[in-house]
Amino acid sequence: MDDVKNKELLIVYFLHQTHIWDKKEAHMKITYFGHACFGIEVSGIHLLFDPFISGNPLASQIEKNTIPADYILLSHGHGDHIGDAVDIALRTGAKIISSYEITDWMKRQGVSKHHPMNIGGKWAFDFGTVKMVAAVHSSSLPDGSYGGCAAGFLIETAEGSFYYSGDTALTQDMKLISELWRPDFAFLCLGDNFTMGVEDARIAAEWVGCQRIIGMHFDTFGYIVINHSEATKAFEQQGKSLKLPAIGEIFEM
Ligand code: NI
Ligand code: MN
Q1: CA 98 / ligand 1 centre spacing (Å)
Q2: Distance 81 CA to ligand 2 centre (A)
């Protein structure tokens, strides 16, 4: 009898050691390339969000020709989100995931791999699922073409789930994210002027139901410079953690 019990304990120990039971403890490796651009590695697959490097004066130390990408997710068509998308897609052969209008525009720029989506739609890729969610913002492409609706993304993978807000105002739609999907953490724009500022992002954090927030869309231009210590303090006061990564910083979530 004791032997059976010992065997059971051994199996429990083994399961813990091999992390079969704590999926939530799995980590994603994230690299911040400045502005709203993040590289995220999920099970060896590289996702790249809103690449804007060569046009970003704060990101001059980033060598964009070494950035890996299997998928490039574009929230909307503004230059500070798609600036380097064509170049990186052509170099890496990455597939663009974005609105129908933006993927169609990418096609005209010679990018061959794309997956068109629209608000409310979900699709299963090899790294996990992507749901395109509402953002309150505009979306035109650099040549003035219509970019469809600006969007955010909900990503669910075996290594965890997150919400990427894109550029957006605070909107009641964010409440759906905590009611229906409960992501583990969220990337929220908070530079104000063009998007939510810190105060609204604090409310957004509550509405999307995340304790761990990564800030984005701050400091790049004079219009969106923020006070870092005041911002982190504001989130701490409501029991949440705000990470404002340094450009080039690699961290895990
Ligand atoms: Ni924008
Ligand atoms: Mn923007």
Answers
A1: 14
A2: 6
- Ligand 2 centroid – CA 80 distance (Å): 5
Residue 195, pLDDT score: 98
The secondary structure of 203-241 as a DSSP string is: HHHHHHT-SEEEEES-SSSGGG---HHHHHHHHHTTT-E
The band of 27, judged by pLDDT with boundaries at 50, 70 and 90, is confident
CA 140 to ligand 1 center in whole angstroms: 9
Residues with CB under 5 A from ligand 1 (ion): 78, 167
The environment of the single-atom ion ligand 2, i.e. residues with CB closer than 5 A, is 80, 167
pLDDT per residue over 49-92, tens digit each?
Answer: 999 999 999 999 999 999 999 999 999 999 999 999 999 999 99
| Ligand (nearest to CA of 220) | 2
For ligand 2, the distance from its centroid to the CA atom of residue 194, given in whole angstroms, is: 7
Q: Indicate whether this model's pTM tops 0.70.
A: yes
More confident: 5 or 130? 130
pLDDT at 43: 93
Q: CA-based diameter of the chain, in Å?
A: 75
Between strands 45-49 and 71-73, the pairing is parallel
User: Domain boundaries in the chain?
Assistant: 24-245
The CATH class of the 24-245 domain is: alpha beta
Q: How many CB atoms lie within 10 A of CB 143?
A: 9
